[in-house]
Amino acid sequence: MKIPSKPPVFSELLIKIFESDRKKGIDLLQKSKPTDKKGQYLHWDKLIHLEAPKGLTTEMWWLGIKFARNNLYKTLTVYDKNDHPFQIGTPDHVLKDLHWLDINTARSVSSEMPIHNPHMKNTYLIRSFVEEAINSSQLEGASTTRNVAKTMIRQGRPPQNKDEQMIFNNYLAMQFIREYKIEKLTPSMILELHKVLTENTSDNPDDAGRYRKKSDDIHVVDGQGQILYTPPNADSIPKRIEQICIFANDNDSDIFIHPILRAILLHFFLAYVHPFVDGNGRTARALFYWSVASREYWLMEYLSISKIIKQAPCRFSDYSSTAFHKFCTSNW
Questions:
Q1: CB atoms within 10 A of CB 298
Q2: What is the structure's pLDDT at 321?
Q3: How far apart are the first and last CA of the chain?
Q4: Which residues contact 323 (CB under 8 A, 6 or more apart)?
Q5: Rg value, the chain, Cα
Q6: Contact of 115 with 60, CB cutoff 8 Å
Q7: Which of 211, 222, 277 is nearest to 244 (CA)?
Q8: Could you tell me where the beta strands, DSSP code E, fall in the chain?
Q9: Chain centre to alpha carbon of residue 46
Q10: What is the pLDDT of residue 330?
Q11: Are the beta carbons of 65 and 288 closer than 8 angstroms?
């Protein structure tokens, strides 16, 4: 993983191209789309390595794409470290994928589905909780085998080491989410969820269920120790968590954010703020589950999102409904 290269400044590109050939610049802005011809929503860091459309430089191509995306952007009520509101753009192919998810994860249970039977429904749900607990913990480095982890949970055996404790905690967190999915998200709920997830797994037991402090030197680093990201100041965490809760609970805004996108954004915002010394990833994934469950995407409770992420951890944000569809059908 590396820090993506910064794209050219939009305003500077616009001036440069219009001064060079105004007519061509106007034509470019009128015909450009927010994605490439394959429907990919590209970042500058990837686009610079691809061949630009005929007659365009890479910079011109990027300018056209950015201009087209401006028409998609919706301004959110959560702010970055520079107090700029985040924005979201939803191109057509994403809307198509979301429609597929609406049909297949929020519909009524049909009589042909195995979970139509109440007993089977409970069996599948427990299996899902176990799978997510194992996969989420393995993303964080837990090395206990699947058979040992399943046996521990099903038999109710106390965890024997840190890896087993992490898996057990994740299992309890899934149960916590199911219990509180009809409640509004609060800072207290996030703190309690974090406590459940990190109990007896942190180097400092006092870190469970509390925000990081000024004295906690927290950075996101790669395998070589290079700093990839430094989260917002600790002093701003309570305010930012309040913003996240307001966003998570907002059902009445004039701006519609699709429930699946809202859950994804909730995951991102928690990771961005990085409010805890440890367990931020586990908490973010748990909040994703809470969000989709609270919006009645019932099928999500039966699937392990962490399993999908684990299959390609550096590219999980690129997964489309195609991959999700394959995962759904392979697990029934």
A1: 18
A2: 37
A3: 34
A4: 308
A5: 22
A6: no
A7: 211
A8: 74-79, 85-88, 220-221, 227-229
A9: 21
A10: 38
A11: no
Domain ranges of the chain: 10-71, 77-330
pLDDT digits (tens, 9 = 90+) for 272-284: 999 999 999 889 9
Determine contact, residues 59/17, Cβ cutoff 8 Å. Answer: yes
**pTM score, two decimals?**
0.81
Enumerate long-range contacts of 59-64, CB under 8 Å, 24 or more apart.
59/8, 59/13, 59/16, 59/17, 60/17, 60/28, 62/7, 62/8, 62/13, 63/10, 63/13, 63/14, 63/17, 63/28, 63/29, 63/32, 64/28, 64/29, 64/31, 64/32, 64/33
Task: Say how far apart CA 140 and CA 160 lie, in whole Å.
Answer: 18
Structural tokens at position 22 = 């105004």
Topology of the domain comprising 77-330:
Fic-like fold (1.10.3290)
Cα separation of 162 and 313, whole Å?
22
For 215-263, write each residue's pLDDT tens digit: 998 888 877 888 888 999 999 999 999 999 999 998 777 889 999 999 9
Q: What confidence tens digit (pLDDT) does each residue in 106-160 have?
A: 655 444 455 455 555 555 555 666 676 677 666 666 667 677 877 887 878 888 8
Amino acid at 91: P
In Å, how far are 32, 69, 320 from 323, measured between CA atoms? Answer: 28, 25, 6
* Strand, coil or helix: 87: strand
Instruction: Give the total residue count for the chain.
Output: 332
Give the Cα separation of 174 and 120 in Å (integer).
18
Token pair belonging to 331: 């697990």
What is the C-alpha to C-alpha distance for residues 145 and 80, in angstroms, rounded to an integer?
39
CB 232 within 8 A of CB 273: yes
- Any idea what DSSP says for residue 76? E
